[in-house]
């Protein structure tokens, strides 16, 4: 299983960026493939999730707020792709 971390650098008070060192440290000594992508515009998380869900074999993690989580859920809808949530928004009501 490959891992994709989608970071929304604009969510909340930019908390999502704080996960990057932890992600890199976790995978440092692991024999697992991971990558980090950054959202650049509205609905980009949805596009990224759908792109990687179509490829298959990925577990997707979204670091952002409610809007980012909503986009991720919509992006993987209809695919057998698990998503994880790294809460980094101002409200995190999801």
Round the Cα radius of gyration to an integer and report it: 12 Å
Order of helices and strands: EHEHEHE
Care to count the β-strands?
Answer: 4
Strands of the widest sheet, in order across it, are 2-1-3-4
The averaged pLDDT comes out at 94
Strand content of the residues, in percent? 15-25%
For the termini, the CA-CA separation is: 26 Å
Tell me the structural class.
Answer: alpha/beta
Instruction: Compute the number of helices.
Output: 3
Low-confidence stretches: none
Overall shape: it is globular
- Give the fraction of residues assigned to helices: 25-40%
Largest sheet: 4 strands, parallel
Plain-language structure description:
- This protein is α/β, with parallel strands linked by helices.
- It contains 3 helices and 4 strands, in the order E-H-E-H-E-H-E.
- The protein has a 4-stranded parallel sheet with strand order 2-1-3-4, sandwiched between helices.
- Helix 1 links the parallel strand 1 and strand 2.
- It is globular.
